[in-house]
Write a structure and sequence with these properties.
Elements (H helix, E strand, L loop, with lengths): L3 H7 L10 H9 L3 E2 L2 E2 L2 E2 L5 E5 L6 E6 L3 H20 L2 H17 L1 H12 L3 H29 L3 E3 L2 E5 L5 H14 L3 E5 L6 H12 L7 E3 L4 H9 L5 E5 L2 H11 L5 E5 L4 E5 L5 H13 L9 E7 L3 H13 L19 H16 L3 E4 L14 E4 L6 H4 L6 E7 L2 H9 L6 E5 L3 H7 L7 E4 L18 E2 L4 H6 L2 E3 L6 E2 L14 H10 L8 H17 L1 H10 L4 H22 L5 E3 L5 E9 L2 E5 L7 H12 L3 E5 L6 H12 L7 E3 L4 H10 L5 E4 L3 H10 L6 E4 L3 E2 L5 H4 L3 H5 L1 E9 L3
Parallel strand pairs: 1-5, 7-8, 7-10, 8-9, 10-11, 12-13, 12-17, 13-16, 15-16, 17-18, 18-30, 24-25, 24-27, 25-26, 27-28
Antiparallel strand pairs: 2-3, 4-5, 6-20, 11-19, 14-15, 21-29, 22-23, 23-30
Helix pairs in contact: 2-5, 4-6, 5-6, 6-7, 11-12, 19-21, 20-21, 21-22, 24-25
Bound molecules: NADP nicotinamide-adenine-dinucleotide phosphate and magnesium ion (MG).
């Protein structure tokens, strides 16, 4: 007689294929051929290339490869639409965003079918996860469209935003980019990925259906060259990019000196840390979802397992069992866990990486399952016996491959987790609240998920540290990234300053080493940093007469000198005030989770102070960087370094830990170039000519440090409303979002 347990052991899901007829009908209605969507109309299809279903290899439709002329036409349309769109009331923009949300919701099934056909993701994930998140994104930013003026009274929209997205989540990436840009009053030209253009084209259609003013959203399809043309276009004011770190670097270099706003959401190599006391079965399940469910093609995939030594064997055994139960196959089948990779070439690339990993000593375990006999499928794979130097541990694989290592102590887990050039996400599993809250700030990642993984919401910022890029998608931080301070528009070109002959330059590399070595400064309380800044202000106050004399000897009149010293003391007090008030927030996300967005320092910031206002200029930059817990290498005014040399004594007597502020006088451009090249520097603020500023941006690409420059413009260092607010604080800060799900 058959036992129930036998049935349970052998029970199989029957196939439950969905019907994609509606998507094929839509493609047929367009003759399976598409032009670009520019100024509310379709262009004549030209330079056609096919987009395929990666699960079958079949061509789905032909789309146009955008030429520089197409990009030019789209940018012109966006430019023409911009004034009216930006001038529209926030309420009216909100109505349009809300209409987009509703229209996507109404066509959710069609979007999901097209997404699955074009990308290979299981239909259950498209329908149940991705498309609802798109609706939520437009709804959330509809609210901001109306509130943006209240939340950011002194900022204005950039203008025309060029947006470039990858193939892994075509529709949600589109929403992540377009919704905040429109809410802030920008118009956009979006380039979807070559491999997955279809849902963007369906989205274009609904722009017409809801009566969106023409030119507000323009979609130009094509490959990398089309994206490059958009990046290079002179009339684009901001580039928002999601994709690989390699292309991100290229875009940083190509936009150097252009003054274009830039946000880069790049690759990752995220750690999944499991402590002894974790809920092991939940951890295994969540890990499997995080690394395998989208074929590992998620930037934030948990691709590095770090498991406590005491439970490692048990954990890996349960993981393998779970891997063997995965169903890889037809993405249109509702019982499929894992669909196809994006293209056969990706299967080959990941296989080659695995071969290399094995050659380096890694041991490979493939899920014991049978793959369909055609299509771009890949077996979920686990690699053990790896070391931190192995390629598979260092490089982003972007496929269903997990590498596993073990650790003994929390400190070792942190060291392993942070041993990467990336910094997108990290996951911590433990039932011990003390432990997880101690770990979260130590992990160098833009998002930390506690007892969970890959949780996202429109209200919570998402984005990386280090070579995972800068800027955020989602939340208020993202909206702020689509706005610029109004005062910047009024700045005029600074007169050229004759270069002072510099006899010798100090050792900036030693200074960086000192700035990196300071331990614990970032972790000090805001109150402690406030006290330090107050002491700096009071120290200057005590030596006011001496500093006035110094500035006079630098060429200032006595009254100018007095005004500058007074303003510098006031500036130090302002940022002392900010130091313990520039707090994070708790996001309200529609699930049982608390999301703490905490403000963290960037790290080591190099500052090349302006030549004018040799005391106030330097302190205006130094103070917000200190307030936020950064350590600093400061190059004072080249022609008048003496006031800051004196200020170094005040820093010493104020009791700041050695290494927090390092002052190195010398040739400002030459020293800044060294800082721009240095991987130990995380941010660079450069005051100087436009040409030199451009060079700093170009030189920054190796570790993708965040660079701000004056672009040769003359800042009024006495302008309190502009410079005593969050202008520099924001540049001194990176936001970490810590997700803490709860519930008994
Ligand atoms: P990719 O090659 O960098 O492509 C991304 C986009 O840039 C595509 O639209 C691509 O066009 C375009 N592009 C390529 N070369 C360009 C150039 N020189 N100038 C301008 N645009 C150019 O990345 P992918 O392979 O599609 O996507 C995978 C990568 O994206 C992974 O590294 C992943 O980690 C990252 N990603 C990051 C996030 C995040 O939020 N941090 C999210 C998703 C993915 P084509 O499609 O025609 O090549
Ligand atoms: Mg495709």
């Amino acid at each position: 007689m058959t036992e129930i347990t036998d049935i349970m052991m052998t029970m199989e899901y029957g196939p439950a294929p969905d019907n994609a007829d509606a998507a094929f009908a839509w493609l047929d209605a367009h003759g399976r051929t598409f032009g670009h969507f520019i100024s509310g109309a379709w262009t004549q299809p030209a330079h056609l290339f096919a987009t395929h279903n990666p699960a079958t290899g079949e061509p789905l439709a032909e789309v146009s490869a955008g030429t520089p002329e197409d990009v030019d036409a789209a940018v012109a349309a966006a430019r023409a639409a911009f004034p009216a769109w930006a001038a529209l009331s926030g309420y009216k923009r909100a109505r349009y965003l809300r209409a987009l949300a509703k229209a996507v919701g109404k066509k959710a099934r069609l979007f999901a079918l097209l997404e699955t056909l074009d990308n290979g993701r299981p239909i259950t994930e498209s329908l149940g996860g991705e498309i609802p998140s798109v609706v939520r994104y437009f709804d959330y930013f509809a609210g901001w469209a109306q509130l943006v003026g209240h939340a950011f009274p002194d900022r204005v929209a950039y203008g025309v935003c060029g947006q470039i997205i990858p193939w892994n989540f075509p529709t949600s990436m589109l929403a992540w980019k377009i919704a905040p840009a429109l809410a802030a009053g920008n118009t956009v030209v979006l380039k979807p990925a070559e491999l997955t253009p279809l849902t963007a084209l369906l989205f274009a259609e609904i722009c017409t259906e809801i009566g969106l003013p023409k030119g507000v959203i323009n979609i130009v399809t094509g490959a990398g060259e089309t994206g490059a043309a958009l990046v290079a276009h002179d009339d684009v004011d901001k580039i928002a990019f999601t994709g690989s770190t390699e292309v991100g670097r290229d875009i940083r270099a190509r936009t150097a000196g252009s003054g274009k706003g830039l946000s880069l959401e790049l690759g990752g190599k995220s750690a999944f840390i499991v402590f002894e006391d974790a809920d092991i079965d939940s951890a295994v399940d969540t890990l499997v979802e995080s690394i395998f469910f989208d074929q590992g093609q998620i930037c934030s995939a948990s691709s590095r397992l770090l498991v406590h030594e005491a439970i490692a064997n048990d954990f890996l055994a349960r993981l393998k069992r779970r891997m063997n139960g995965l169903r890889v196959g037809d993405p249109m089948d509702a019982s499929t866990d894992i669909g196809a990779m994006i293209a056969p070439s990706e299967v080959d690339r990941v296989s080659a990486m695995l071969d290399q990993g094995e050659a380096e000593g890694g041991r490979r375990y493939e899920a014991e399952i049978v793959l369909p006999n055609r299509g771009a499928f890949f077996k979920p794979t686990l690699v053990t016996d790896v070391a931190p130097t192995h390629t598979l541990v260092r490089e982003e694989i972007f496929g269903p491959v997990l590498v596993a290592m073990s650790f003994r102590t929390p400190d070792e887990a942190v060291a392993l987790a942070n041993n990467t050039r990336y910094g997108l996400a990290a996951n911590v599993w433990s039932e011990n609240v003390n432990l997880v809250l101690d770990m979260a700030p130590k992990l160098k990642a833009g998002v930390v998920w506690i007892n969970g993984s890959n949780m996202f919401d429109a209200a919570a910022g998402f984005g990386g540290y280090r070579e995972s890029g800068f800027g955020r998608d989602g939340g208020r931080e993202c909206l702020g990234g689509y706005l610029k301070p109004a005062f910047e528009q009024k700045l005029e070109k600074a007169p050229a300053v004759p270069a002072a002959p510099i006899s010798s330059s100090g050792d900036v590399v030693k200074a960086v080493a000192a700035a990196r070595k300071v331990s614990g400064w970032a972790g000090t309380s805001g109150a402690a940093r406030a006290a330090s800044l107050y002491r700096l202000g009071e120290g200057l106050e005590q030596r006011r007469a001496e500093f006035i004399g110094r500035l006079v000897s630098c060429g200032a009149s006595p009254s100018e000198a007095e005004r500058e010293v007074e303003a510098t003391i006031e500036r130090l007090f302002a940022f002392a005030g900010w130091a313990d008030k520039n707090e994070g927030v708790v996001h309200d996300v529609p699930r049982r989770a608390t999301v703490m967005a905490i403000n963290e320092p960037i790290g080591v910031i190099g500052i090349a102070a302006p030549d004018e206002a040799p005391l106030l200029g330097a302190v205006s930059l130094l103070a917000p960087a200190i307030a936020r817990g950064n350590t600093i290498v400061l190059i004072p005014s080249e022609s008048n370094p003496a006031p800051m040399a004196d200020f170094a004594q005040i820093v010493e007597t104020a009791g700041l830990p050695g290494g927090v502020v390092n002052i190195v006088a010398g040739d400002s451009v030459a020293l800044s170039e060294k800082l721009a090249r240095h991987d130990g520097v995380d941010g660079l603020w450069f005051c100087g000519s436009a040409e030199a500023g451009a060079e700093m941006e170009r030189l920054s690409i190796h570790n993708l440090k965040q660079v701000w420059t004056t672009r040769g413009l003359r800042f009024d260092w006495f302008d309190k409303p502009a410079l005593e607010g969050d202008y520099f604080l924001l540049k001194a800060t990176q936001v970490k979002n810590i997700w803490i799900p709860y519930g008994a």
